[in-house]
Amino acid sequence: MASSAAVMGITGIILSLFPQEFAAIFNIAVTSIIFLQLLGGLYFGFGLLNWTAKGNLTGGIYSRPVAIGNLTHFVMGGLALLKFASHNNTSNWIWIAAILYLVFAILFGLVLFTNPVMKNKSS
């Protein structure tokens, strides 16, 4: 949870505060700046959701909506990035993003479909 929160939170901040610079690096049309800022807000919000849920028992029936949302986001995003990367030889960053997304998809799949184990908290 914490690693996905960090990745999404940092991505959200970058897209929200530096959309022109991001667009210039990845050759994105300037007219798409508002969409990058909206996407940044989405990533930052999802990052905050994961950060606040990181202390909760997650998996099985616990925090199921958080796990389902993350799994859906990372599976759909990973497949879209993989498809785009396989058809366009534009940048290695797309492959890195696709691999990162698919790793998070696998991890959230494990979280969703396995029973969580409570850590023993000694006081």
What is the compact description of this entry?
The chain is mainly alpha-helical and 123 residues long. It folds into two domains: 1-47, no CATH class; 56-115.
Can you describe this structure?
The protein has helices spanning 2-17, 19-25, 33-53, 64-87, 92-113. With 123 residues, it is mainly alpha-helical. The protein is globular.
Order of helix and strand elements from N to C terminus: HHHHH
Structurally, the number of domains stands at: 2
Shape: globular
Structural class: mainly alpha
- Distance between the amino and carboxyl termini: 24 Å
Supply Rg.
16 Å
| Proportion in β-strands | under 5%
Number of strands: 0
Low-confidence sequence ranges: none
Q: What is the mean pLDDT?
A: 88
Q: Major sheet: size, sense and barrel closure?
A: none
Percentage of residues assigned to helices: over 70%
Write the layout of secondary structure elements.
Elements: H1 2-17, H2 19-25, H3 33-53, H4 64-87, H5 92-113
Helix pairs in contact: 1-3, 4-5
Task: List the keywords.
5 helices, 123 residues, mainly alpha, 73% helix, 2 domains
